[in-house]
Prior knowledge:
Elements: E1 7-9, H1 33-49, E2 56-60, H2 72-96, E3 100-104, H3 115-138, H4 142-152, E4 153-158, H5 159-163, H6 169-178, E5 183-188, E6 190-195, H7 200-204, E7 215-218, E8 225-229, H8 230-235, E9 243-250, E10 260-262, H9 269-277, E11 283-285, H10 295-298, H11 302-314
Parallel strand pairs: 1-2, 2-3, 3-4, 4-5, 5-11
Antiparallel strand pairs: 6-9, 6-10, 7-8, 7-9
Amino acid sequence: xxxxxxxxxxxxxxxxxxxxxxxxxxxxxxxxxxxxxxxxxxxxxxxxxxxxxxxxxxxxxxxxxxxxxxxxxxxxxxxxxxxxxxxxxxxxxxxxxxxxxxxxxxxxxxxxxxxxxxxxxxxxxxxxxxxxxxxxxxxxxxxxxxxxxxxxxxxxxxxxxxxxxxxxxxxxxxxxxxxxxxxxxxxxxxxxxxxxxxxxxxxxxxxxxxxxxxxxxxxxxxxxxxxxxxxxxxxxxxxxxxxxxxxxxxxxxxxxxxxxxxxxxxxxxxxxxxxxxxxxxxxxxxxxxxxxxxxxxxxxxxxxxxxxxxxxxxxxxxx
Length: 319
């Protein structure tokens, strides 16, 4: 059928659909051998599936869930395993010629949730400490060790997640590029945008489900404020008029309804053109929530919904 596989979603580990995951979606995190070994198994599979001259990418957990990282020992554990994964990916490159980049995917309430946190982590922690790890384990010069890290560890740029941080997506791409951080892939997805008002709870309640975590963010004087899972926030709503960004991947083509909107309007032809100019080659539509969306968003069926999302994206210059 002339199909090929350029990218894998290595974020979920084990069951993901139709069973409650919530914060367990981040387990095992990058402090564990399980996450490293699983990711390298995925990479070896991808190396067999991808075309020879096309780079590959794998998205993954953004380190850990923020509340689980308590000390430098936790940070060291993550950096060691990420550095060892970079070494494993470089070995695959030398053996097979397949260039695979692992993309840490910033997500609300995780160790990495904003572009600024990603830049700080790579520059302050991963590059210097990972460089020392690879220099010791592989016997590389520091510059060569850092080159391995920069080639094989980057960021998966999820447009829903970064819109949750109230970021300008074009500026976020620029900040990563300026820091020399490879953008492994760009995931096209949209969050719910809403302002709290009487009756909003009735419209938002159908988006609560027992499977996925639906973090809520609101703007604050020092950056976005985490409000918790949507089901908890609806039980103690904030002041009227406050803007919410809700981590629920809604179809890109959905215009919103009943006072609800989405962040899909940030996915413009100009953004896609800019990403391509910065070297991004993998664009992945990532609405995985069709089976838990409210009935009025599921009436097309999954197949029609996927087709309509492709048509929506292609109309904006990607094909």
